[in-house]
Input
Amino acid sequence: MADIIIVGAGAAGLMASIVAGRAGHSVILLEQNTKIGKKILVSGNGKCNITNRYIQTNRFHGHNPDFIEKVLQGYGFETVEPFFTSIGLEFTEGKDGKMFPLSLQASSVVELLEYEAKRIGVQILCDAAVTALAKNTDTFTVETRQGTYSSHKLILASGSPAAPQLGGSNSGYAFATKMGHTLIPRHPSLVQLCSEESWVKNCAGVKVAGVATLYANGEQITEKKGDLLFTTYGISGLAILDLSREVSTRLASFDYCELSLDLMPAFSKERLSNLLLDRIKSNSEKPIILWLQGVLHKKLIPVIVEQSKCKAKAESDLDRKEINKLVHTIKHLKLTISETKGFEGAEVSTGGINTEEVNPLTMESNLVPNLYFAGEILDVDGDRGGFNFHFAWVSGMRAGIRN
Ligand SMILES: Cc1cc2nc3c(=O)[nH]c(=O)nc-3n(C[C@H](O)[C@H](O)[C@H](O)COP(=O)(O)OP(=O)(O)OC[C@H]3O[C@@H](n4cnc5c(N)ncnc54)[C@H](O)[C@@H]3O)c2cc1C
Output
C-alpha cells in the first residue's frame, strides 16, 4: 500500500510526486504513455516555455477566479524558479517574461524531473493506463493495465483532452464524476481556426505580422497583435492562438464569428493610401498584380484585388477610389470562422473539474476526502507564455506538499 498514487506523469503529476516524495511519502506515479512528460517534450517548439516571470491572475481563465487567485497566492515565479534550481535546471528569459530552460531543450526539463523523482524513491510506471478507480473506506484501489495498486491518497493529474496524440484524455473526468464531481464545459483553446473562405488555401504558408479582430454576431470582442499564418484550412499564428479561446467558446454558443485582419498594422490608413497613391506612374501598363508586389506578399495580392472589387487592371487605371478599396481590404480582410481544429490541434482545454468543489490551498476535493487534483484537469487554463505550465507546477506543488 502506497501513501499516494498519482494518475498522470505530466507536468502536474511529476511536480506533485517530487514534492510528496521529498516529504517522505511513498509515491506511485502512473502514466498511460510509454514515456513520461510527452507534452513537456514538444512544448514551446521543443524549447519548453516553462513559466513566466510575470504571473498575474488575469493571465488565467476559469469560471471561478477566486480559486485561481488563491492557488497563485504566494506561488508565483519566485516559487517555481528555486524548485527548478534545486533539480539542477537554470532558466533563460525570452520576450514578455517567458522563461525557458537555459539549454533551450524541453528534454532537459523532463530528464531532470525524472532523475529527481527516481532519486527520492518515486515509483514511476509507464504504459500503465488507469482503467478503473474505487474509493473504499479509507483507501483507493486503482486498476491499471499493469496490475492493481492501492493507496491512502490519490492525486488525479491526468490532464485534459487537448492533444490526444500526446496523451490528452477525458479519463480523469470520468473517474472524478463517478465520485460525485461536476464538470465545467471543455472547449479547445490555443488552437488554429478553420475558415469558410476557400481562397485561404491559395495563401497557405504566408505569414504576416498583423492584427486580428474578432467579431461575434457583429459585435467587436477582442483584438490580438502578432503573426497571422494562412493555412490550407484557415488561419493560425500567434495572434490567432491568442484569440482562439474566445472563438471556441463563442462557436459553442452558436455565435457567428468573423475575423477582420489588418495585414499592414504598421501603416495607418492614411499612410498606406499616400504610399500607394505616390507609387502610381501615369501611362504605366504594369499589371496591378505585379505593381502590388512592391508592397504585399505575392500570394495575398489576388485575394486583395478580388475581395476589394478593384476594377483596375494596370497601374495607370488606379485612382483614389480604387486605392481606397485596396487599402480598406488590406486593413480589414474578412474571414468567417466555421470551426476550430478541435482538441487534436489545441494546446489546452478550457473547463474541467468544477473548482468550487476543490480546496485551492491543498487541492483536496471538498467532496471526497484524500482525493486531490492538479493541473489542467481543473477548470483553469492560461494564456500562451508559460502560464499553463505554471499552473500545472504550482497546483502540483500544493497537491504534493499537503500530503
Ligand atoms: C503542442 C503543445 C505545446 C505546448 N507548449 C506549452 C508551453 O510552451 N508552455 C506552457 O505553459 N504550456 C504549453 N502547453 C500546455 C501544457 O503542455 C499543458 O498545460 C500541461 O502539460 C498540463 O499539465 P498536466 O500535468 O495537467 O497535464 P498533461 O501534461 O497532459 O499530463 C497528464 C498525463 O496524464 C496521462 N494520463 C491521462 N489519462 C491517464 C490514465 N487514465 N492513466 C494514466 N495516465 C493518464 C497522460 O498521458 C499525460 O501524460 C503546450 C501544449 C501542447 C499540446
Observations:
- The longest helix spans residues 238-252.
- The first strand starts at residue 2 and ends at 7.
